[in-house]
Amino acid sequence: MRGPVAPPQVPLSASRAQVFDDFVRDAVERLERHVPQIADIDFLVQEVPRPQGAGDDWLDEAVPLGAAVGARKGRAAQVVVYRRPVEIRARGRDERALLVHEIVVEQVAELLGLTPETVDPRYDEGD
């Protein structure tokens, strides 16, 4: 028998990248209730971070899990979550979802000049 194991609407058929995108989307939707300013922020997922300058590498410091990029002329502020480093650090689906949420909270807080607890009152509770 050839063909998919499960129909497309079943979560089993979602790729790891699609599931990760859903984690980011869920985190953003959860924060929208507390922080309406995030409507002005673009949320992106990249596979891995790129070193900042020529010859830079990640040997001397930890690989970042996310980044906050301030608004520039003609471009909205951005929060970037790096999929592969997060997947490597989180053991399972629930842990990965929690880590993504924490990264989104921390990066939004940095962009808005707030504490993570202000962005998400349950930030330090470990859900």
Describe it:
It contains 4 helices and 3 strands, in the order αβββααα. A hairpin with a 7-residue loop joins strand 2 (66-69) and strand 3 (77-82). It is globular. The mean pLDDT is 86. The chain is of the alpha+beta class and 127 residues long. It has helices spanning 16-32, 83-89, 93-112, 116-119; strands spanning 41-46, 66-69, 77-82. 38% of the residues lie in helices and 13% in strands. The chain has a 3-stranded mixed beta sheet.
Write a compact overview of the structure shown.
The chain is α+β, with helices and mostly antiparallel strands and 127 residues long. The chain has four helices and three strands; from the N terminus they run H-E-E-E-H-H-H. The protein starts with 15 loop residues before the first helix and ends in an 8-residue tail after the last helix.
Question: Strands, helices and their partners?
Answer:
Blueprint: H1 16-32, E1 41-46, E2 66-69, E3 77-82, H2 83-89, H3 93-112, H4 116-119
Parallel strand pairs: 1-3
Antiparallel strand pairs: 2-3
